[in-house]
């Protein structure tokens, strides 16, 4: 009788092994490269270990800000990783590769990988799987980094439909949409015109009701952590005022516009565009609220 075939090496087993030899990974990789598998099964096992070693090398290099080593290791791992037979490793490798590419502002390479990552997760996993949430956040951050208003808005609009829900706010992915909005509103790299454009464009069923609460939450957090006159706090107040006036709530918007103006006048040089914008908003609100006032 033939002996039973050896069980496939589990990713957890590989990880435990690599934990024990983490200081000697380059030597381990060299040994693996020199090894000649005798069977297709052996080749698959060696490939799985190679992917795990390359991922560890890339992750470690990324932490040390050795981006060239990180990218070369992760690109090599991605090239030999199989999303069918190694789904866990495939996801980890490609997610980390996108993160390193984003850190190096290599967005043209990162965005297609992130799109593929999300599409694969949506195709193979349930709508509320954590990997879909992580993939959405990753792609959303890339859209923000490149000020891709259309891409980010499209992502948010499509995401509720991917869960099979209608336009209600009762599905398992609600917190994903809210986290994306929160990230949008706190993303400092997005310039003021893009911030205003994004807030203005995100007026669609199932999302607009949460925007005000997110804006208020961000303002409260900034006030608590940065102080009431910090420029970022003033920007949060201005964003809230802008949103409220767009909803026709001028009376609610006015104190936040005045808060932004007062804080910016204390912290920014006179003539700064933020001060000009806030002054214009306050004047416009007062003109509409009190028509007879000069």
Structural overview:
The protein has 294 residues and is an all-alpha fold. It is 73% helix and 0% strand. The protein has helices spanning 11-20, 25-34, 40-63, 67-80, 87-103, 107-124, 130-145, 149-162, 174-186, 192-201, 208-226, 231-246, 250-267, 273-289. It is elongated and about 90 Å long. It starts with 10 loop residues before the first helix and ends in a 5-residue tail after the last helix.
Query: Uncertain spans, ≥5 residues at pLDDT below 50?
Result: 1-9, 160-173, 203-207
Helix share bin:
over 70%
Percent of residues in β-strands = under 5%
Report Rg. Answer: 25 Å
Helix segment count?
Answer: 14
**Category from helices, strands and their pairing:** mainly alpha
Number of distinct beta strands: 0
The major sheet is characterized as: none
Order of helices and strands: HHHHHHHHHHHHHH
Average pLDDT confidence is: 76
Overall 3D geometry? elongated
Query: For the terminal residues, how far apart are their CA atoms?
Result: 100 Å
Topology:
Layout: H1 11-20, H2 25-34, H3 40-63, H4 67-80, H5 87-103, H6 107-124, H7 130-145, H8 149-162, H9 174-186, H10 192-201, H11 208-226, H12 231-246, H13 250-267, H14 273-289
Helix pairs in contact: 1-3, 2-3, 3-4, 3-5, 4-5, 5-6, 5-7, 6-7, 7-8, 7-9, 9-11, 10-12, 11-12, 12-13, 12-14, 13-14
Task: Please summarize what this structure is.
The protein is mostly helical. It contains 14 helices and no strands.
Describe the structure using short key phrases:
0% strand, 14 helices, 294 residues, mainly alpha, elongated
């Amino acid at each position: 009788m033939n002996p039973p075939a050896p069980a496939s090496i589990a990713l957890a087993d590989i990880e435990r092994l690599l934990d024990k030899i983490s200081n000697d990974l380059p030597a381990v990789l060299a040994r693996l490269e020199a090894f000649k598998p005798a069977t297709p099964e052996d080749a698959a096992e060696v490939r799985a270990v190679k992917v795990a070693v390359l991922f560890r090398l890339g992750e470690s290099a990324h932490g040390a800000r050795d981006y060239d080593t990180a990218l070369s290791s992760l690109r090599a791992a991605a090239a030999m990783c199989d999303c069918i037979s190694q789904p866990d490793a495939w996801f980890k490798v490609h997610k980390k590769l996108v993160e390193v590419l984003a850190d190096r502002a290599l967005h043209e390479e990162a965005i297609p990988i992130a799109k593929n990552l999300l599409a694969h997760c949506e195709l193979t996993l349930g709508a509320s799987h954590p990997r879909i949430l992580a993939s959405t956040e990753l792609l959303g951050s890339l859209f923000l980094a490149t000020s891709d208003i259309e891409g980010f808005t499209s992502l948010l609009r499509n995401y509720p439909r991917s869960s099979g829900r209608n336009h209600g706010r009762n599905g398992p992915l609600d917190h994903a949409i809210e986290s994306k909005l929160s990230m949008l509103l706190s993303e400092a790299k997005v310039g003021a015109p893009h911030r205003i454009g994004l807030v203005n464009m995100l007026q669609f069923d199932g999302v607009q009701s949460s925007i005000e609460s997110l804006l208020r939450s961000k303002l409260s957090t900034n006030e608590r952590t940065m102080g009431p006159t910090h420029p970022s706090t003033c920007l949060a107040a201005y964003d809230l005022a802008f949103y409220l006036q767009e909803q026709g709530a001028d009376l609610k918007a006015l104190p936040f516009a005045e808060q932004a103006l007062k804080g910016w006048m204390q912290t920014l040089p006179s003539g700064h565009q933020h001060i000009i914008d806030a002054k214009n908003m306050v004047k416009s609100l007062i003109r509409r609220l009190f028509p007879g006032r000069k």
